[in-house]
Amino acid sequence: MMASHIVKPDTRNCKRPRELEPQMPESPQLSSLGKSESSFLESSGLFYKDESLDKDLNDMSKEINLMLSTYAKILSTMESTHQKKATFGKREKLPCIAPLLTTVEETPQMVSAQVRGHFPKWLSGYLLRIGPGKFEFGKDKYNHWFDGMALLHQFRMEKGTVTYRSKFLQSDTYKANSVHDRIVVSEFGTLALPDPCKNVFERFMSKFELPAMTDNTNVNYVRYKGDYYVSSEINFMNKVDIEALEKTEKVDWSKFIAVNGATAHPHYDPDGTAYNMGNSFGPRGSCYNIIRVPPEKVDPGETIHRAQVICSIASAERMKPSYYHSFGMTRNYIIFIEQPLKMNLWKIVTSRIRGKAFSSGISWEPQYNTRFHVVDKHTGQLLPGIYYSKPFVTFHQINAFEDQGCVVIDLCCQDDGRSLEVYQLQNLRKSGEGLDQVYNSAGRSFPRRFVLPLHVSLNDPEGENLSPLSYSSASAVKQADGKIWCSYENLHPEDLEEEGGVEFPQINYGQFSGKKYRFFYGCGFRHLVGDSLIKVDVVNKTLTIWREDGFYPSEPVFVPEPGASEEDGGVILSAVITPDQNENNFLLVLDAKNFEELGRAEVPVQMPYGIHGTFVTI
Ligand SMILES: [Fe+2]
Q1: Rounded Cα–Cα distance for residues 406 and 451 (Å)
Q2: What does the note under cofactor report (predicted)?
């Protein structure tokens, strides 16, 4: 098998691409920008003007909060998409990847890996990864990839050697399902069915019981006050002893602050202060809340004590807040993107009665534009600027920074927000033409830059680009109503379309988060799961690619070499898996500069396709 190392220059005309021109109101969604804020809201929700319903909502808000927590598990990745003309993929004869999306056994005892090539001696630590690893209990089967029980993976590197082990997270959900040998707690795409031992009346009435809340936190490792937790987007997180790979404590966000949960992608200041975002629901409707968690413990037993909500942003539609998976942060600002991927709260809270899974309450509504909100993270003040762009969906921001009075934010973007359905397990496990059809119906994800001028005044001219940044073709045009219409710059060469776009973006976070930067790393998606590793130079717009046919690499994690001063001075780690039973899975280490393989550590253990991870120095 050959790995390819390709540097692909940007072959496009360097002039501003056509889609970067200001998008003046010409479509129904754009014309709504000219309306007053109230008419905009009124036209968008059934419940906005109903006073009696408002009163009912007040009374129900507590209940709704509780139920939202249960269901607030939303996707997580969704990586795939598209953009431009090539919105969807066009591939055929895709190999079946079903073995990567089936239940595996845990490997609790450390297994020594066989190292080929070498792992740098300075590389000493854990690559911790997490993702779904068990997809049925008894005769009950989960429907969606996100539903699977969390499996914790640990690759331990020290003095050139590598060991591996994995354990299922001993969440209350996992334990309850195991005891009953059936699915007793609903997940994102799976509604737990009533106990078959109950009689018909009891089973009917059980639809009206408050469902147990899942604590199957299977998306990412996050860090608060030096401790590691596994998180999804629900109200619960599970604190983990990363050495023993064991859960030590279950933590509930709603016990500390008024939120229903928080994302699995917090940001960190250099001093360890963590920022995150979570939703709440009250008498005035849905709010998006910015959370700050201090870096240090006052008491050794603390978890997220003294967390604060520093800003609440009202949802454009009170009963249909947008789904978001991450957000941006510069040195001084938080950037929140309110996108037209909506959560219908009524559908969600009534899903059990309707016999539907939580996922049935999420809808892509491209009749609305995407809006950017900018918040001063020191004061909690929401800036007055109103920034819009045409509808898109983003799951992962790449980086953001400030320059010449602007916020620059780079995102992996999809123009079609319906990719959640694609990740039903029955889709992922298809083969032949059926699999090709699924892939070709999924949007792809491409990196884009938006520029948001921070100081817009009444005197600024209408219809002109307010961005002063000569190095970016992204534009920000003030409209007659004072709002700023933002058009993006592509951060990649056209060649990226052949690679199926890019997702799971990672940077040299320690040194370049919130700062002007040049490189990010991600997975290419010529399949429904990542099938290559890509280094993107966002300045020169070139790609460097690692690929090995039949193997599927995980999110690339950058680890800086101690003392290195260059942005890409370090290595890339990725867990590479294959559905071929005759081949071993392995941990790959690449030189981050040129993407040449330094070594691989082969492990004769079956591993499912995972979601996110992190590196922790020993
Ligand atoms: Fe994610």
Answers
A1: 6
A2: Binds 1 Fe(2+) ion per subunit.
Going from the Cα of 478 to the center of ligand 1, the distance in angstroms, rounded, reads: 33
pTM of whole model > 0.90?
A: no
| Alpha-carbon distance values, 37 to 33, 42, 312, 317, 435 (Å) | 8, 9, 18, 11, 44
Residue carrying structure tokens 């899942």:
214
Please tell me the distance from the alpha carbon of residue 472 to that of residue 16, in angstroms, as a whole number. Answer: 9
In angstroms, what is the span from residue 394 Cα to ligand 1's centroid?
A: 10
Whether the Cβ atoms of residue 289 and residue 314 lie closer than 8 Å to each other = no
Distance CA 179, CA 196 (A): 15
- pLDDT tens digits, one per residue of 178-208: 999 999 999 999 999 776 666 666 655 555 5
Q: What distance in angstroms lies between residue 606's CA and the mean position of ligand 1's atoms? A: 23
Kindly give the distance from the C-alpha atom of residue 491 to the centroid of ligand 1, in angstroms, as a whole number: 20
Binding residues for Fe cation: 265, 325, 396, 612
pLDDT per residue over 85-123, tens digit each? Answer: 445 668 889 999 999 999 999 999 999 999 999 999 999
Distance 612 CA to ligand 1 centre (A): 7
Q: Where are the domains of the chain?
A: 98-617
Residue 283 Cα to ligand 1 midpoint, Å, equals 30
Protein residues with C-beta less than 5 angstroms from the ion ligand 1: 76
8 Å CB contact between 576 and 564: no
| 3-state per-residue secondary structure call for 441-474 | HCECEEEEEEEEECCCCCCCCCCCECCCCCCCCC
3-class secondary-structure state, position 63 = helix
Which segments are annotated as binding site? Answer: 265, 325, 396, 612
pLDDT tens digits along 444-493: 999 999 999 999 888 889 999 999 999 999 999 999 999 999 999 999 99
Kindly give the distance from the C-alpha atom of residue 421 to the centroid of ligand 1, in angstroms, as a whole number.
Answer: 17
Structure tokens at 501: 């776009």
* Secondary structure class of 568 (helix, strand, coil): coil
- What spacing in Å lies between the alpha carbon of 78 and ligand 1's midpoint? 8
3-state secondary structure 235-295: CEEEEEECCCCEEEEEEEHHHCCCCCCCCCCCEECCCCCEEEEEEEEECCEEEEEEEEECC
